[in-house]
Amino acid sequence: MTSDLLAFDQAHIWHPYTSATAPLPTQLVTSAEGVRLKLADGRELIDGMASWWCAIHGYNHPDINAALHTQLSAMSHVMFGGITHEPAITLCKTLIDITPEALQHVFLADSGSISVEVAIKMALQYWQATGQTKKRKLLSLRGGYHGDTFAAMSVCDPDTGMHHLFNQAVTPQFFTERPSSRFETPFSAASLADLEAVFAQHHADIAAIILEPIVQGAGGMWLYHPDYLKRVRQLCDHYHVLLIADEIATGFGRTGKLFACEWAEITPDILCVGKALTGGYMTLAATLTSSKIAQGISQNGGVFMHGPTFMGNPLACAAANASLKLLLNQDWAAQVKRLERTLKDQLMPAQQLSTVADVRVLGGIGIIEMVEPIDPVTAQAFFVARGVWVRPFGKLLYVMPPFIMSDADLTTVCQAMLDFAQHGAA
Ligand code: PMP
């Protein structure tokens, strides 16, 4: 039975970023509880990925389950055009309360990529509506990743990123060098020269800069110093460029602050959140913006031109409300600090290995960058045999566990990463 399901899966189903003719092996998961994924053959894996940053409270959480059951019996979906509901209102109110005060308007999107599309459209519409029609380009950082849809792809790193196949098809944008400091190391003036030059030269054409604050995720798991964000904010103010913060991965506590922009004490003009918003239960994201931008777009009868079918889905909003309640009613900062301590204790020794290029830890994120690329198939088999779920990519081994993971479980995950870093899959 299991083998039939897996055979069908391999023959017919696309998984993220895979080939139809040479698919990567898949694990058949039948249930998930706490921090453990249960496989069809009875084995359990400790989940070091939190389902790509999402499942911060772990799986099958009674509070989120209960919220979903209650919402299901009231209303699973209703169109958002001309209709509103309490789960969406409560959610937007919470989002406005926990993000910087200037952000007062919320657009509910159905995935992270769409929240980025929405952010970009907000920036473009704002300048159109306010008469600065030349401002149609985006500025983005090398090493950045913002999603898989077309506008989002146009602001991903065009050289090392995942979407170079589409370089000729997407709108050409401006790029500046990857912020090349570490989280701990302030920037030298020289390392900001490229950023400053791009602003000085092209600001008249630039609607917004989009960046992932502090942690560049899928583009390479790079961490950088908060001073960079402070300088970006100053340049944006000086040159009249909007700042879009993509906190889809970093939002809701992952870096040790509720939002990574807080490390630099800056307020973006537009903020994208997703992933952990529903605790990983449902697909939902949100784009927040200021009254200045919202009013600019709306002047002279202007409307914001986006409206997905599943906008504000009540089940997703109910899951998000339960997840945010759980997060905000506990000492999440202490949880993440505890994860950070364990990750540092466990992973930093890997810096001594000749096979390892770098180790980086911040909040609930631990990264081992290898000298050589990792073969994903043998690596995955190695980790599954060790009873842990981490998914290497490129030269990177990385872990971002559910916040509830015990030190003992996190140590098991880190030890497996260390063994792999030292000995490979042998
Ligand atoms: N921005 C960032 C920083 C992300 O990490 C991701 C997802 N990996 C996205 C955007 C796109 O989100 P989604 O996969 O939900 O479309």
From TrEMBL:
<comment type="pathway">
    <text>Cofactor biosynthesis; biotin biosynthesis; 7,8-diaminononanoate from 8-amino-7-oxononanoate (SAM route): step 1/1.</text>
</comment>
<feature type="binding site">
    <location>
        <position position="307"/>
    </location>
    <ligand>
        <name>substrate</name>
    </ligand>
</feature>
<feature type="binding site">
    <location>
        <begin position="308"/>
        <end position="309"/>
    </location>
    <ligand>
        <name>pyridoxal 5'-phosphate</name>
    </ligand>
</feature>
<feature type="binding site">
    <location>
        <begin position="112"/>
        <end position="113"/>
    </location>
    <ligand>
        <name>pyridoxal 5'-phosphate</name>
    </ligand>
</feature>
<feature type="binding site">
    <location>
        <position position="391"/>
    </location>
    <ligand>
        <name>substrate</name>
    </ligand>
</feature>
<dbReference type="InterPro" id="IPR015422">
    <property type="entry name" value="PyrdxlP-dep_Trfase_small"/>
</dbReference>
<dbReference type="GO" id="GO:0005737">
    <property type="term" value="C:cytoplasm"/>
</dbReference>
<dbReference type="InterPro" id="IPR005815">
    <property type="entry name" value="BioA"/>
</dbReference>
<feature type="binding site">
    <location>
        <position position="275"/>
    </location>
    <ligand>
        <name>substrate</name>
    </ligand>
</feature>
<keyword id="KW-0093">Biotin biosynthesis</keyword>
<dbReference type="InterPro" id="IPR015424">
    <property type="entry name" value="PyrdxlP-dep_Trfase"/>
</dbReference>
<keyword id="KW-0949">S-adenosyl-L-methionine</keyword>
<feature type="binding site">
    <location>
        <position position="246"/>
    </location>
    <ligand>
        <name>pyridoxal 5'-phosphate</name>
    </ligand>
</feature>
<comment type="function">
    <text>Catalyzes the transfer of the alpha-amino group from S-adenosyl-L-methionine (SAM) to 7-keto-8-aminopelargonic acid (KAPA) to form 7,8-diaminopelargonic acid (DAPA). It is the only aminotransferase known to utilize SAM as an amino donor.</text>
</comment>
<keyword id="KW-0963">Cytoplasm</keyword>
<feature type="modified residue" description="N6-(pyridoxal phosphate)lysine">
    <location>
        <position position="275"/>
    </location>
</feature>
<feature type="binding site">
    <location>
        <position position="145"/>
    </location>
    <ligand>
        <name>substrate</name>
    </ligand>
</feature>
<dbReference type="GO" id="GO:0009102">
    <property type="term" value="P:biotin biosynthetic process"/>
</dbReference>
<feature type="site" description="Participates in the substrate recognition with KAPA and in a stacking interaction with the adenine ring of SAM">
    <location>
        <position position="17"/>
    </location>
</feature>
<feature type="binding site">
    <location>
        <position position="52"/>
    </location>
    <ligand>
        <name>substrate</name>
    </ligand>
</feature>
<dbReference type="GO" id="GO:0030170">
    <property type="term" value="F:pyridoxal phosphate binding"/>
</dbReference>
<comment type="subunit">
    <text>Homodimer.</text>
</comment>
<keyword id="KW-0808">Transferase</keyword>
<dbReference type="InterPro" id="IPR015421">
    <property type="entry name" value="PyrdxlP-dep_Trfase_major"/>
</dbReference>
<dbReference type="InterPro" id="IPR049704">
    <property type="entry name" value="Aminotrans_3_PPA_site"/>
</dbReference>
<dbReference type="InterPro" id="IPR005814">
    <property type="entry name" value="Aminotrans_3"/>
</dbReference>
<dbReference type="Pfam" id="PF00202">
    <property type="entry name" value="Aminotran_3"/>
</dbReference>
<protein>
    <recommendedName>
        <fullName>Adenosylmethionine-8-amino-7-oxononanoate aminotransferase</fullName>
        <ecNumber>2.6.1.62</ecNumber>
    </recommendedName>
</protein>
<comment type="similarity">
    <text>Belongs to the class-III pyridoxal-phosphate-dependent aminotransferase family. BioA subfamily.</text>
</comment>
<keyword id="KW-0032">Aminotransferase</keyword>
<dbReference type="GO" id="GO:0004015">
    <property type="term" value="F:adenosylmethionine-8-amino-7-oxononanoate transaminase activity"/>
</dbReference>
<keyword id="KW-0663">Pyridoxal phosphate</keyword>
